[in-house]
Amino acid sequence: MILRQYIDMIRIWELDNNKRARKLSLSGGEPLLRKDFFKLLEEIQNNKWMFTSLVVMSNGSLITKDVARKLNKNEVSGVQISLEGTEEFNDRIRGKGAFKKAVNGIKILMDFGLTTGVSLTAHRKNYRDLPNLIDFLRDLGVKLIGIGRLVPIGMGESLEMLNPKELKDFYSLIMAKKKELEKEGVRMLAHCSDSLWLTEDKNYETHGCSAGYDSFSILPNGDVVPCRRFPVKVGNVLEKSLIDIWYTSDFLWKLRNKGNVSACKDCEFFKKCFGGARCVAYGYFNDVFASDPQCWRLFNSLPEKTTPPVGKDDTIVFNEAYTESFDPKTYFDKMSDV
Ligand SMILES: C[S@@+](CC[C@H](N)C(=O)[O-])C[C@H]1O[C@@H](n2cnc3c(N)ncnc32)[C@H](O)[C@@H]1O
Ligand code: SF4
After folding, report:
1. Following DSSP, what letter does each residue of 126-194 receive, concatenated?
2. Could you identify the atom of ligand 2 that is nearest to the CA of residue 267?
3. What is the DSSP track for 64-88?
């Protein structure tokens, strides 16, 4: 029924001649834990022509040859497996043995010829280890690596976000790695086309955060949110049709007005970046139109040291060009709490 609603909405999108991507991702939690997972996949497969891609996002622990065979049979476009670092770092977060299980899953998927990507999420506990993980994945033969940054919501609130200086250093290192790995046929992509990559590579293609604009998530209870990292309920598909929710939610319309992130309007990147990640601004400030607190362009000076965590006495100086809706004191207070 929910699949049918999405298909109906795609038909309307086609009529309004838009360029929305029509992608479908099955995520979680762990999607492979669902007893009816392959039944759902078959149903999607029957309507496959409606979607430009179908990706399964998994922790890899339940991937067997039989599962890989069925994923292949249902022609998924790709499988995304998550890792948080090399073995020790990953298992600190995901539990003992999780790394070996995920790597075993990755090998099986690649043996079956399935497009296999690995997703990494940067935060203060793992970011120095992520280049090692990237090298490990290259040696394993992985050809697609997705890089994200921690969003301070849900369980993510118990981890520490990178401060702007750390994120800048991390992204510039990632850009160098990206160039090196591209020569070997490995693609490195920013999750959600993270527009802050623009500041390190002016040719980087992005149109800013797509939450509510050309993406949304449906949670297991039917709640619709602009993105899975953006927990603002805009409706429930068991009570109202997806089309109704998509076209009548005030919150979604506000979100689509990209001029609303007023604090960075003068930035040279604004027309492509539109203020960075809405989920991070929302999770951090509880204000969807605040600036992205991790953007280093918002500050005149950044700390020399990247550890210990930024505290009230640290040397970050707020850039007055961007003061409109951005309170650095809140920023420092919160940073020192994490
Ligand atoms: C798509 S989800 C769920 C799929 C799968 N069940 C799993 O365990 O990975 C997994 C990805 O989201 C990332 N993730 C989870 N919570 C996050 C948060 N609060 N902020 C940013 N990324 C997060 C994980 O690091 C991982 O790369
Ligand atoms: S200042 Fe704003 S528009 Fe400019 S790069 Fe940072 S988040 Fe994007």
Report:
1. TTTTHHHHHHHHHHHT--EEEEEE--SSGGGGGSPPPPHHHHHHHHHHHHHHHHHHHTTT-EEEEGGG-
2. 4
3. -HHHHHHHHHTT-SEEEEE--SSHH
Residue that has been written with the tokens 């100086």 in this structure: 317
Phi and psi torsions of 254, nearest 5°: -65, -40
Half-sphere exposure of 260 (CA within 13 A, CB side): 16
**Nearest Cα residue to atom 4 of ligand 2:** 267
- Using an 8 Å Cβ cutoff, are 44 and 70 in contact? no
- Which helix (H) or strand (E) segment holds residue 121: the answer is strand 116-122
Paired strand residues for 225: 217
Distance CA 108, CA 70 (A): 12
Q: Whose Cα sits closest to atom 8 in ligand 1?
A: 59
Per residue of the chain (338 residues), give pLDDT as tens: 788 888 888 888 877 766 677 889 999 889 999 999 999 999 999 888 888 899 999 999 999 999 999 999 999 999 999 999 999 999 999 999 999 999 999 999 999 999 999 999 999 889 999 999 999 999 999 999 999 999 988 877 778 888 888 898 899 999 999 999 999 999 999 998 899 998 888 888 888 888 988 889 999 999 999 999 988 999 999 999 999 999 999 999 999 888 888 778 888 899 889 999 999 988 888 888 888 888 888 877 665 544 434 444 455 565 666 655 555 445 545 544 43
**Does 105 sit behind a cis peptide bond, omega within 30 degrees of 0 on the bond before it?**
no
Of 265, 266, 292, 294, best ligand 2 pocket probe by most atoms within 8 Å of the beta carbon: 292
